[in-house]
Amino acid sequence: MKPAPFAYHAPDTLDEALHLMATLDNARVLAGGQSLMPMLNFRVVQPEHLIDLGRIPELAFIEPTPHGLQVGATTTQRTIERSALVRQYCPLLIDALFHVGHQQTRNRGTIGGSLCHLDPSAELPVTACALDPVLTIASQNGRRQISFSDFPAGYLTSTLEPNEILVRIDFAPWPERTGTAFEEFACRPADFAIVSVAAVITMDSGDRISEARIAIGGISAVPMRMTEVETLLLGAHCDSGLIERAAAGAAAFPSVGDDNYPAEYRQELAAHLLQRALTKVIQRIQT
Length: 287
Hints:
By secondary structure, this protein is of the alpha+beta class.
């Protein structure tokens, strides 16, 4: 199919883009287009106006700050994947991007586009669920900041207002002895994951887990934190027995299902993927 007719706009500044969003009815922004273009072609969405953010340089950057790492919303996934700063400050992003589509997809896809699309099977929303970065959202009325945990509103739906644009993602620094890992299962490389798991673990000087964040995708309408598993891990020495108990907790986590991949299958995948992720995290902390 082909998209329904629309007017195309290519602003050169963020102020111009925000003005268009505030004054045009039924407008959508275009970042990398890897999610939006198929939806346009199948007429799942039919905007009257399409606002291309690709010519706005202030939205594409990676910068360290005293408070962590800032990434512009239209920074491409390939740029993030190859960034030494991201590898230093936020290696979980690179782990996740290894699973995102093909290189051609990552050449065009943007971090902000993926987060706003909020596909529960996509890697970057699950990663953001674990890291809980701060999102800066702009409109003509000003800017506001929210944690990613407050961003999803439902399936493929965020809390962005119709006149707002995501402009920046801020990732906080992690203490020493923090390890991260991302695992997923897909039928073929570059396919959407059936289930994915992102893990962030910090250990204290006594080898006890002082912080644990476990996020999972593919079992609900939005990425979810496995808070009961996190509670199980906190304060414990990480050994094979603890990892097995955490995996059992993941297997008991409520899940949606369908004819191809029923809930029980997804729960079993969640257990195996969490076991692999935690094993990898501990190895990374201890080496």
